[in-house]
Design brief:
heterotrimer, A alpha+beta (about 400), B alpha/beta (about 140), C alpha/beta (about 140), A: about 400 residues, alpha+beta, Cytochrome-c3 Hydrogenase, chain B, 2 domains, C: about 140 residues, five-stranded parallel beta sheet, 5 helices
């Protein structure tokens, strides 16, 4: 049977190809998916080889805007692993706080986008509005809303002021009622459940075969989390739990991310209480020959950095593996067999770092003409929600 | 399984095929092995020990192209990195994709940047570089 | 002032084009639509097709794979179309200057009308930049 090819568009599709996701469709069902990436590739691994160890921290921050601190976190973990040093305790707590604040703002961002794809634009506006206080905390503590430049091999670059702590605590505690609202809205809404339950399922076997990480894996019941498995920073000094959910579908991924936000608030509040006074930097001067591996549990999963040094000023090899690299590929399994109106939410459910999900478009295979673009696919998804709402309201 | 048991088991399995063994720290182990035993050892780590493949790192060194296979044993927080050294000018090794689906993109990237041929890989097209990037030009090689 | 330019400066419809960025500027652009900044009250809105756009918001350091697409997008835009370069990468490539995959800056391919620097520029800075551009266009058309 002749298959139609429907490439899927992103939030802001480009007019013509190249497509990022190309769906082969038979009627309404997706039969195969071809994924093309590379439009954001800036060869940062090669740029690292010509920068000093300190400069590399700034370069890797700009790999991704949303999980901007995850990369310096993993990179500094790799350098600390190479050197075998113990970073000062105060720095460990500051690192943890910045990492968890980032998780909060990233999950809220994703929640907004998921709401938009499903047709709940109010969720989008509310989630992003509630994200603003967290960006204000970042601005007070680090000086910038994004790209914080807090990390440094051997410690952190800036200290936190105790005078800010009461305000930070209050802002976070004010966030809890909002999280309660989102939790209720998601878990109690029959339309959202109907749209997302049983959709885009990844089994435990799939998670293992595709080496999936992060909330995408935890939503299938696989409890892997670098913060618990290979503890670093202050994660083994505070009480918190790994959130998993059986189900493997888009609904489970929604639930895992919302519940993780509560844990993040919990971790930050504990860190603010337990942070000791002291130095924040080891003042590392030289990196001897050797190799080191550093990992961090970013909002999307495990970020992996490998550094090889020969004693000089720059790394001779810096390998970076972002979590979305593994998670996006798992879409090959998750989206096949589903309908095109569900395709947008399934592809978005792995929380592809926006900078990986650039282009999508819809083209009819036989005629070569564009029959749909990304906006149309999002509209299809929103229309399905509207139909379901009607059903439930009858 | 405990870390010591896993290490002893690997040493026992491979015997002389282990060229170098570096128990660097509590959670980092680097083992240099001959490329002929890689697939069997990967099968053992993936299927029996239930390790997860994190990624592959390729480095262009004087001895040849060094590839590190990083496996993570999440229950112990341990990373076992298997190092194989492939001879230039035509480095090649068997693919892991028959065993681990997730290795497809990882091997494609190593092929694209270092020119390593993964025998049996279903699809070694360009992943990240632009389509008309010159054939034979591998950005991470040092002898360009 | 001709009616085209008058209409252009009243309520600008913008099309967002990323040429290979870390997406931080793109998120801050989307942030402009959210309640705290809410540019829709000025009539500025994001459109899905460049043919409907009065201005193109360009972000990113222009990597090699995107160059043909960027050119095609600009050709399809209905002229006059303003080009606004947002962020350090679009202004002068920032940290990716002389990078192996990003040899040319955005203004070597597109005629940029205004540069809004920052990494990323704050939403307030973007609004200020757009206001400045509108005033500049109005003054130019009045012959000042």
């Amino acid at each position: 049977m002749a298959h139609k090819i429907i490439p899927i568009g992103p939030y802001h599709p480009l007019q013509e190809e190249p497509e990022f996701f190309r769906l082969h469709v038979d009627g309404e069902r997706v039969v195969d998916i071809d994924i093309q990436i590379g439009y954001n590739h800036r060869m940062i691994e090669k740029i690292s080889e010509s920068k000093s160890y300190d400069q590399v921290t700034f370069v890797v921050e700009r790999i991704c805007g949303i999980c901007s601190t995850s990369h310096p976190f993993a990179y500094t973990n790799a350098i600390d692993d190479l050197l075998g040093v113990q970073v000062p305790e105060r720095a460990l707590y500051i690192r943890t706080i910045i990492g968890e604040l980032e998780r909060l703002h990233s999950h809220l961002l994703w929640l907004g986008l998921a709401g938009h794809f499903l047709g709940y634009n109010t969720v989008w506006m509310w989630a992003w509005k509630c994200r603003e206080p967290i960006l204000d905390i970042f601005e007070r503590v680090t000086g910038n809303r994004q790209h914080y430049a807090m990390f440094k091999p051997g410690g952190v670059r800036r200290d936190m002021d105790e005078e800010d702590f009461p305000w930070i605590r209050k802002t976070l505690k004010d966030l809890i009622p909002t999280l309660d609202m989102f939790k209720g809205a998601v878990m109690d809404d029959p339309v959202i459940r109907a749209r997302t339950e049983g959709v885009g399922v990844l089994t435990k076997e799939d998670v293992r075969n595709y080496c999936v990480v992060g909330p995408t894996a935890r939503a299938s019941g696989v409890a892997i989390d670098v913060r618990k498995d290979d503890p670093y920073a202050a994660y083994d000094k505070v009480e918190w739990k790994v959130i998993t959910y059986e189900g493997g579908d888009v609904f489970s991924k929604l639930v895992v991310r919302i519940l993780e936000m509560y844990e993040s608030v919990n971790i930050i509040l504990q860190c603010l209480d337990k942070m000791p006074k002291g130095p924040i930097d080891l003042n590392i001067k030289d990196i001897p020959p050797g190799e080191g591996i550093g990992r961090h549990e970013a909002p999307r999963g495990e970020v992996f950095h490998y550094i090889m040094s020969d004693g000089g000023n720059s790394p001779i090899r810096h390998k970076i593996r972002a979590p979305s690299y593994m998670n996006i590929f798992s879409n090959k399994k998750a989206v096949i067999g589903e309908t095109i109106s569900d395709a947008t939410i399934i592809l978005a459910a792995v929380d592809p770092c926006y900078c990986c999900t650039e282009r999508m478009a819809v083209v009819d295979y036989k005629s070569g003409k564009r029959i749909m673009d990304g906006e149309d696919l999002i509209r299809l998804s929103q229309e399905k929600t509207a139909r379901l709402k009607e059903q439930f309201c009858k | 399984m405990k870390k010591e048991e896993i290490i002893q088991d690997i040493k026992h399995r491979l015997g002389n095929d282990i060229i170098d063994f570096n128990d660097r720290s509590e959670r980092r182990v680097y083992i240099t092995i001959r490329k002929t035993v890689l697939l069997d050892l990967a099968k053992h780590l993936f299927s029996v020990i239930q390790a997860r493949l994190c990624t592959l790192t390729g480095v262009d060194t004087r001895q040849g192209i060094e590839i590190l296979y990083h496996f993570s044993i999440d229950e112990l927080g341990l990373i076992i990195s298997l190092r194989v050294i492939l001879d230039k000018p035509n480095p090649e090794i068997d693919t892991l994709t028959s065993l681990i689906k997730g290795a497809e993109w990882i091997e494609r990237e190593v092929h694209e940047f270092l020119g390593v041929n993964f025998k049996g890989h279903p699809d070694l097209r360009h992943l990240l570089l632009k389509d008309d990037w010159p054939e034979g030009d591998y950005p991470l090689r040092r002898d360009r | 002032m001709s009616i085209r330019f008058k209409a252009l400066t009243k309520s600008i419809w913008v099309y967002h084009l990323s040429t290979g960025s870390c997406n931080n500027c793109d998120i801050e652009i989307l942030d402009l639509l959210t309640p705290r900044f809410d540019v829709e009250r000025f009539g500025i809105t994001l459109v899905g097709s460049v043919r409907h756009a009065d201005a193109i918001l360009v972000t990113g350091a222009l990597n090699l794979k995107t160059i043909p697409r960027v050119k095609r997008v600009y050709e399809q835009a209905a002229k006059p179309c303003l080009v606004i370069a947002i962020g350090a990468c679009a202004c002068g490539q920032g940290i990716f200057k002389n990078g192996p995959n990003t040899p040319n800056p955005v203004d070597s391919i597109l005629p940029v009308d205004i540069y809004i620097p920052g990494c990323p520029p704050k939403p307030e800075a973007m609004i200020a930049g757009i206001v400045k551009l509108i005033e500049h266009v109005r003054r130019k058309k009045k012959g000042l």
